[in-house]
Every structure is written in structure tokens, then in C-alpha cells.
Amino acid sequence: MVAEAYRDRLAPYVDRLAKPFLGWSPTTLSGVAIGLAIAAGVVAVLVRWTTPLLFLPVGLLVFFAGVFDVLDGAVARKTGRTSVRGDFLDHVLDRYADVAIVVGLGFSSFAYPTLALLALASLLLTSYMGTQAQALGQGRLYAGLLTRADRLLILAGAAFLEFDLSLPWPWAPTAPISHIHVSGLTFTVIDLAFVYVVVAGQWTALARAWRVYRALPPTA
């Protein structure tokens, strides 16, 4: 997934979505986004093997946290309220949102805590490499296999899929793909999402680091 490649195509739709919120402060929208992310993490902690239906609100909360995260920047640009302070606050809240969602899913019964820890490290490293490039005068890096939009869509999608597979739909498999057995270990969709986040996140972080390193002047 590389959602960043569709940024220009989606821009008109984002602008249309932002219109009802032009009277809002970008900071307020950022606050709503982090609030939804924290709520998603709290609900995810409550998910047990006997309560997979809770994945529906988790998925919805993660999805709308991403929507409001997009809206705060769009509203700031359209109303001329962009600022260095606002950009910094947005990055800080984004990292806390990432932590809340991943930690919450990691404490559910549907994830291996070790995978959640590795996924969290990959997310933070990916974001760090992007902001470090900006700090070194190379501009903010958003490209890569795992942008922030990608990971929110992946985690929200995994939650929705876990919810879907917990219901007796006619198309639901008798042996749900959310439970894959490998060498005595049982992997869920959440686990598989974390595996992708780890691999794609490390690839993105290293690619960004290499790009910045090559752009910097050589040492004397």
C-alpha cells in the first residue's frame, strides 16, 4: 500500500470534506483525531476471544482518527492558519495516536505483544526518518511503502476483517483466515497486519535514511 501516491487525486475530495469544518480550529481537529485514536486503543484493550465484535468500533475509531488527522491540515491550509507550531503539534499528536492504537491492539487477545512492540518500533522509526530529513534541511519525507495513511488504513482494515470473520456470514470460512497455524503458533489478521507494518516500516525507514544520507554533503 502506498496511499501517498494518491494524495493529488484525493485532494479535491479532501477539500470538499473539509468545507463543513472551516470554522473549526486546526488544533481542535487535531484534538479530535488524538481523542479518537486513544478511544480506539482503549476499546482494543477490551477485545478478547469472546468479544471480537468490539473490533467494529475499533476499526471505525481508527478510520475516523485518520480522517480528522487529514482534516486538520486541510483546514489549516484553506484558512491560512498553517504555522510551525501547529505542524510540530500535529507531529507530536500523531506519534501519540500511533502508540495508543498499536499498544491497544497489542493488549488485545488477537495479537502477540512482541509483534506489537516491533510494529510500534517500525512506525516510530519511519516517522523519525521523515522528520529527521526535515530537520537536516532536506524537506519532510512522506514517501515509502508505509506512510501514515497506509498504516492507519491497514490497522483499521485488519480490525474490520476480524469483526467480519467473527460473524456467521454465508461467505465466512469454516476455518477463518484470521487464525493461521504455523509451527504451533496461531496468527490472526491483526498479527499479519503487524508483520506487514514491521517489514514495510523497516524498509521505509531505511530507504528514507539512505536517501537523506546520500543528499547530505560528504564529510571532510
The major sheet is characterized as: 2 strands, antiparallel
Structural class given helices, strands, pairing?
mainly alpha
- CATH class category: Mainly Alpha
The CATH topology label is: Four Helix Bundle (Hemerythrin (Met), subunit A)
Task: Report the sheet-strand fraction.
Answer: under 5%
Oligomerization state? single chain
- CATH homology-level superfamily: CDP-alcohol phosphotransferase transmembrane (TM) domain
Number of DSSP-assigned strands: 2
Please report the distance between the alpha carbons of the first and last residues: 40 Å
Mean pLDDT, to the nearest integer, reads: 87
Walk me through the structure:
The protein is mainly α and 220 residues long. It has a single domain, classed as CDP-alcohol phosphotransferase transmembrane (TM) domain (Four Helix Bundle (Hemerythrin (Met), subunit A), Up-down Bundle). The chain contains seven helices and two strands; from the N terminus they run H-H-H-H-H-H-E-E-H. It has helices at 7-18, 26-45, 55-78, 84-106, 113-135, 148-165, 189-215; strands spanning 180-182, 185-187. A two-stranded antiparallel sheet has the order 1-2. Strand 1 and strand 2 (185-187) form a beta hairpin. Helix 3 runs antiparallel to helix 4 (84-106) and helix 3 (55-78) packs antiparallel against helix 6 (148-165). The radius of gyration is 18 Å and the shape is globular. The protein starts with 6 loop residues before the first helix and ends in a 5-residue tail after the last helix. The mean pLDDT is 87.
